[in-house]
Amino acid sequence: MPSWPKETKYITHPTTRVDGPAKVTGNARYSSDIQADGWLYGMILRSKWPAATITAINLAPALKVPGIKAAVLAPALENNSDNFIVRFYGQELAAVCGTTKDACLDALRAIEVTAQPKEAFVVNENEAMKDGAPEVWAGQSNVSPGRPREQGNVDQAFGECAAVIEGFYSTPVQIHNPMETHGNTISWTDDGVTAWASTQGIGGVRNSLAGALRLDHSKVRVITDYMGGGFGAKFNAGVEGVLAAKLSQAAKAPVRLMLTRFDQALAVGNRPSSFQTIKMGALADGTLHAFEGENYGTAGVGASADAGGGGGGADIPMPYLYKVANSRVTQSAVMLNAGASRAFRAPSHPPASFGMECAMDDLAVKLGMDPLEFRLKNDPNEVRQREYKIGAEKFGWKEKYQKPGSSPGVVKTGVGCAGAAWGAGGPSKNTHGEAQINPDGSVEIRMGVQDLGTGTRTVIAVVAAEMLGLKPEQITVKIGDTNYPPGPGSGGSTTCASISPTVYDICTKALQQLQTQTGVADASGDNWFAACKKLGVTPLVAHGDWIDGLSTKPAYGVQFAEVDVDTETGLVTVKRVVAVHDCGLMIDTLTLESQINGGIIMGMGYALYEERVMDDLSGVVLNPNFETYKMPGIVDVPEIEVVLLNMPERGVIGIGEPATVPTAGAIANAVANAIGARVGSLPITPAKILAALGKVPPVEKT
Amino acid sequence: MKAFEYATALTTDSARQLVANNGAYIAGGNDLLGLLKEYLISANILVNIKSLPDLDKIESGSKSWTIGALVTVGQIERHDEIAKAFPGLRDAASEIASPQIRNVATVGGNLAQHSRCWYYRHRDILCLKKGGDLCYARNSDNRYHSLFTGNECISPVVSSLATTFAALDATVIVLRDGKETPMSIADLYQTAWSDTPAHNSLNPGDLILRVEIPTARNRSAYLQVSDKHSFDWALVSCAAAANVTDGKLSQPRVALGSISPVPHQVETANQFLDGKTLDDATISQATDMILWGAKPLEHNAYKVPLARALIRRTLLKLKGEA
Question: What is the extent of the structural domain holding B28?
Answer without folding.
Answer: 1-53
